[in-house]
Design a protein that fits this description.
Helix content is 79%, strand content 0%. By secondary structure, the protein is an all-alpha fold.
């Protein structure tokens, strides 16, 4: 259950879920310290969730290209300014920019989508992003594992940290959905008002 929740949350983070991947990896490390999960398995699950999420965004960019921006969910992430920033970075640095993008949360999803759209070879994507992930994911997980006692003192009253993270992520999604619905309804009302005025 913990592994599945962590994997799915990491996958969602790749799509722009407003929850840092580091929080999930730290949590897996802490739970490994407590003995609730296995450390090596946690590292593998973290690496798999991170890389699969990145690869999915890359393939979406490869298949759909700029058409994906017409979808509201992606339009908020793939802003014109971010895309242009990533285009320039690719122009200056080439495919190796994928390595550094893994450590740049604000541009990570945009970078992988743009790489797919620009037809960067998939093997290059897997190489650079994979190397970055295999360095960062185990390191962050082990850091929390090594500092487990300090974490335990801070959250001694918490029995299920991953459950709290999942609840927090769910609440964020609900708030985002409600906000989107309000904006949509407001837009419809504005359109109706304009239509009435024109009549």
């Amino acid at each position: 259950m913990i592994y599945s929740a962590a994997f799915l949350i990491l996958l969602a983070c790749g799509f722009g879920l407003p929850l840092p991947e580091d929080v999930v990896l730290f949590t897996l490390g802490y739970l490994s310290f407590r003995g609730d999960v296995d450390l090596l398995t946690s590292m593998a699950v973290g690496f798999g969730g991170v890389l699969l999420g990145d690869a999915t965004i890359f393939l979406i960019g490869r298949v759909f290209g700029e058409r994906i921006v017409t979808i509201p969910l992606f339009r908020r992430i793939l802003t014109e300014r971010r895309v242009e920033t990533v285009r320039q970075a690719f122009h200056r640095n080439g495919s190796i920019y994928l390595f550094f993008a893994r450590f740049t949360p604000g541009l990570r999803a945009v970078t992988f989508w743009t790489a797919g759209m620009l037809r960067v070879p998939f093997r290059s994507f897997v190489l650079y992003d994979g190397v970055a992930a295999i360095l960062s994911v185990p390191a962050l997980t082990y850091l929390a594992y090594a500092a487990g006692e300090a974490f335990h003192d801070k959250i001694s009253g918490v029995r299920d940290v991953m459950g709290l993270i999942a609840v927090a992520a769910f609440l964020v999604l609900v708030l985002v959905t409600v906000a989107r619905r309000k904006r949509t309804l407001s837009s419809i009302d504005d359109m109706n008002t304009e239509s009435t005025d024109n009549e």
